Amino acid sequence: MDIYSVVLSPWFWLAVFVVFTLIEFANSFNLITIWFAISAFFMIFISGLTGFLDDPIRFKLHLGVFLAMSIALLIYTRPLAMEKFKVGKTKTNFDDLVGREALVTKEITKHGKGEIKIKGQIWTAVSEGDERIEENSECFVVKIEGVKLVVRKKIDSDGVK
C-alpha cells in the first residue's frame, strides 16, 4: 500500500472532513476551518470520479481542488456567514454608551480622571483631547477604554464649549 492509495481514497477525505469539523466545534464556531471541512466533504465525491487518472496527477489535482475550494469559500463566504450569524459580535450594554450625552459630576482635568453620570450610573471618565471639562457640564461619550469612558465636551449651538 503506497501513500497515493491512502491520500486519494474517499476515506481519507472523510477523515479530513471529520477532523476539520471537530476543530471548528472546538474553536466555538469561529467559521474558519468549517470551509476546509466543506471542501473535504466535496472531495469525497471528487476522489471517486478521478479514478481513471494516474496517481501523481490525481494527487496534484485533489490537492489543488481542495485548496482552491477551501480558500475561495473562506474568502467569499466567511464574511457573509459572519454577518448572517453575528459570530464574534456580542453587543453589550457597554456599547450602548458610545455617542450618548452625559453629565460631568466630578471635574475632568487635563491629565486626570473625573466622573460622569450616564443612564443613572457613575463612571470614571477622561477627556478625549486632554481638555478640562468642568463639573455640571455636558459631554458626549466618544469611546470606551478598559473600564473608563473617553468623553468630549459638548459644544453649544453657538459653537461655545
Characterization of this structure:
By secondary structure, this protein is an alpha+beta fold. The chain folds into two domains: 3-85, no CATH class; 95-153, OB fold (Dihydrolipoamide Acetyltransferase, E2P), CATH 2.40.50. 42% of the residues lie in helices and 20% in strands. A five-stranded mixed β-barrel has the order 1-2-3-5-4.
How would you classify the helix and strand content by structural class? alpha+beta
The main sheet comes to: 5 strands, mixed, barrel
Helix-strand sequence = HHHHHEEEEE
C-alpha geometry: rod-shaped
State the oligomer: single chain
Average pLDDT over all residues: 84
Cα(first) to Cα(last) distance is 81 Å
- Radius of gyration using CA atoms only: 28 Å
Helix content: 40-55%
Integer tally of domains: 2
Strand order of the largest sheet: 1-2-3-5-4
Low-confidence sequence ranges: none
User: How many β-strands, per DSSP?
Assistant: 5
**Proportion of beta-strand residues:** 15-25%
Number of helices: 5
Question: What order do the helices and strands come in, and which of them pair?
Answer:
Layout: H1 3-7, H2 10-26, H3 34-49, H4 55-76, H5 78-85, E1 101-106, E2 114-118, E3 121-127, E4 138-145, E5 148-153
Parallel strand pairs: 3-5
Antiparallel strand pairs: 1-2, 1-4, 2-3, 4-5
Helix pairs in contact: 2-3, 3-4
